Amino acid sequence: MLVRTLVLGGGLTGITLAHLLRQRGQEATVLEAAERIGGLCRSRSENGFTFDVGGSHIIFSRDHEVLEFMKNVLGSNREQRTRNTRILFRDILVKYPFENGLAALPKDDLFYCINEFIQTYLKAEKGEIPPPANFREWIYATFGKGIADLYMVPYNEKIWNYPPESMSAHWVEGRVPRPPVEDVIKSAIGIETEGYTHQSVFTYPAEGGIESLVKSIARGIEDCILTGFTVRSLAFRGGVWEAGDGKRTVTGDRVISTIPLQHLLPCLGGGVPPAVKEAVGALRYNSVCCVQIGIKGRVPDISWLYIPYRTQSLANRISFPSNFSSHVAPPGHAGILAEITYNEGDEVSRMTDDELVSHVIGSLERMGFLTPGQVVHTAVDRQKFAYVVYDLDYPGNIRIIREYFQERGITLVGRFSQFEYLNMDGCIRQAMECARSWP
Ligand SMILES: Cc1cc2nc3c(=O)[nH]c(=O)nc-3n(C[C@H](O)[C@H](O)[C@H](O)COP(=O)(O)OP(=O)(O)OC[C@H]3O[C@@H](n4cnc5c(N)ncnc54)[C@H](O)[C@@H]3O)c2cc1C
Q: What pLDDT, on the 0 to 100 scale, is given for residue 342?
């Protein structure tokens, strides 16, 4: 029997699932609310500039199979670059990761960082540091007070828009690596070292921004993608799954959701246990605002820049996409993309697009990346679901939610359905595992 799978959501995960199911000779229908596929991996091309609207995206992975998959689907539409990333510490550009750039710090800050790092390392070796109970404790236990106070804590407070002491530490192991002590000492005395080496060379589409990755995966399966279809109801009746948008109904034999849990739950109507509703309601996430600036002239030879202090800018990161590909800005021009995380109701959520643009331009001028009159293009995009925030209640809540969806026979895959901090490679890996697990 030919099995038809309903895939809710046409972001990277949903499109990859449909592609892989088709490859295995199965039928799939992707239901995507927006008029365009791609979700967080969409891009906007205007006035000769191309920007990623869900924040700056690069292609990298430790997962060889997934990395090859991404490169192969792009074919010749890709460029490879060496990462050159910095942290703007006060007005000093420090090499990223911070612990690999310590030599750039003023002497007293450098002593504070290296001394505290070594003291903490020695205590850890003697088993004198208890297991961290939250993310803040993990930062102090991993980097010592110096690196924590000067960079890790302010930066994380800014990007998560949530206190690190209220965040769980379970997700950081492996994602934020524990720096080898030799490397930190070398970096402090000025010997070059590299951190996060799996990212030191990255790929980016030559044309079309990151959206061309999703478009390439969708090539040949366009007939199974329904855009402009917001799933509002989902029910299993008479042995068949029915998904509706209020006007139309699409049926399938099984269902995979890649849409945010907060959108999926209301589709199920009454009968959802209150504990599940509460658990979904308690999940925390961040939104991101992406301010795009096209300029006449050049930008520094930096891939992206972390900005740890709110006094420097509301933006936590500034990327220079025209350093990823030579085709995303007109000749003689360059692109700058600022990311600002926020939550509904806070200061940033209340700012208009114009206010955000002038704030970003003002901070870029103060940081020395712009001079007045250089700006020739601006745009702003906001993504409601951008980052999963792992608060202390997360492990308990996600357990309740996953058990419930498993009982209902709904498979959850992707960043906001699994509700995990998955990058593109993680989403594709999960899609591969899911497609392979079905006959
Ligand atoms: C600022 C930022 C920077 C990032 N940078 C990188 C990077 O450099 N490298 C990297 O590998 N990863 C990066 N990522 C992560 C990457 O964006 C995600 O891993 C990936 O895009 C998630 O894809 P997804 O399909 O799971 O989710 P989404 O992209 O969120 O897709 C979900 C889709 O579901 C649709 N949808 C929602 N509700 C409904 C509904 N009711 N009915 C139908 N459709 C619906 C949405 O419109 C959307 O298209 C970054 C993420 C952010 C926020």
A: 98
Q: What residue segments make up the domains of the chain, in order of their start?
A: 4-39+209-283+390-437, 97-195
Query: What span, in angstroms and rounded, lies between the C-alpha atoms of 183 and 177?
Result: 12
Please, which residues have CB within 8 angstroms of residue 236's CB and are 6 or more apart in sequence?
242, 408, 409
Q: Say how far apart CA 343 and CA 160 lie, in whole Å.
A: 10
Paired with 21 in beta bridges are none
Q: Would the pTM count as exceeding 0.85?
A: yes
C-beta 39 within 6 A of ligand 1: yes
What one-letter code names the amino acid at 160?
W
- Whether 31 lines ligand 1, by a CB cut-off of 6 Å, is yes
The rounded distance, in Å, linking the Cα atoms of 418 and 129 is 32
Closest approach atom of ligand 1 to CA 387: 53
Residue nearest to atom 8 of ligand 1 (CA): 57
Cα distance between residue 33 and residue 21, in whole Å: 21
Provide mean pLDDT across the span 79-89.
96
d(CA 215, ligand 1 centre) in Å: 14
In terms of phi and psi (left: phi > 0; alpha: psi -120 to 50; beta: otherwise), the region of 327 is alpha
The CATH fold of domain 4-39+209-283+390-437: FAD/NAD(P)-binding domain (3.50.50)
Ranges of H-type helices in 43-167: 64-74, 107-125, 135-147, 153-160
